[in-house]
Amino acid sequence: MGILETFKEGFSIAIAGIAFPGLNLNVTPGLYPIGHPTEDSPILVTSNYFVTYKRVVSSLEKQDVTAWLLVVNTEGVNVWCSAAGGNFTAEKILDQIDDTNLSEAVNHRQLILPQLSASGVNHLVLNKAKWEVKFGPVNINDLGEYLQNDLSKTTSMSQVEFNLRSRIENCVSHNVFISLILIPLILGIQILAQPLGFLLQPWAQWLLVNVIFLLLFIWAFGFLVGILYPITPFNSGFLKGVILSAILVPLCAILFFTSSLLDFILAIGTLFLYGIVISTDFDGFSPFWGTDFILKDYLLLTGAAVIIIIILIISPIIIGG
Amino acid sequence: MVTHINLKRCIGCQFCVQVCPRGCFEYDFEINKVKLVNPILCLKCRACELNCEGDAIRIEKPIFQNFFAQLI
Q1: Is residue B20 less than 8 Å (CB to CB) from chain A?
Q2: In the CATH scheme, what architecture does the domain A24-158 have?
Q3: Does residue A214 register a pLDDT over 70?
Q4: CB-side exposure of A212: number of CA atoms within 13 Å?
């Protein structure tokens, strides 16, 4: 996939998923032929999220794989998230097998499941129903090689990775999301600034005047977080954000916000706040961390955000601006 | 959370090796059982625990845990 296509894909996922959540993102569950499968052809199983389905089908066609594709009703959620959330289970697969009369389409009892479905699918339940289960590679692009190697995986086929291409794609959809958060933040501060004018008016005004700069900052910082992800110190997205913000935010403030001390402090505070929010939230795109890691990171973010917001509110009083 | 393997129950089915997305397990051909080689990489997805044929894997929350264990 070229860089432009990566951008387009990330953008369309964000727009479809975040801006228009009412859109139907599901593919109709069922049995789909890839190529011209026969009763000997392998059965592959996947989720019914439209992006997953689209990528699986196009990858299999590119690899010249002939197979049956059993699309399970995972409520339109991708493989890993639906497995972790209890929507991709052995029972759901069995329901889909019954609904599609799969046993009549093939002469074998072997299912190839995406490896990342294993956190939700108990293969022993499928074994009891006389289905043999193989957990295939993590990445669908390795499936052709996996089939050719008699269903054996290399170490790299079974491990998740977070390469530059997927980081950039995630950056695009994440930046769209973070940019949209800017609107309720600005509106919220404007509304609160009415009764609490003496406290919030300077920050509310600063946000309105610098909205374009903030948007540019969000996109530039968002890409830096994603691109530098493997080389920024620490595992924690929050700590990565603190490091990057500590370098970049004072630089931005010195270059663009020196009209007054208050302007300088509001710039430092707001940009630092956005920096740590962007970086912590990017944790969710990484396949390396579980929920307890992310919860701890959000706890740190919440503490830091409260302190920064208090500073932003009281600094006009202290400075007398 | 911490991953434990009860070697007495491990039957060497290797499903944990097959499903772990972080390469935490390795098969020991000398004893025909599985070893936990990279516990720090574990992201607690519980795929190994769910698919262990010998019911030998437990992912447990210890009473005391270093808050910054994985973060730094």
Answers
A1: yes
A2: 3-Layer(aba) Sandwich (3.40)
A3: yes
A4: 2
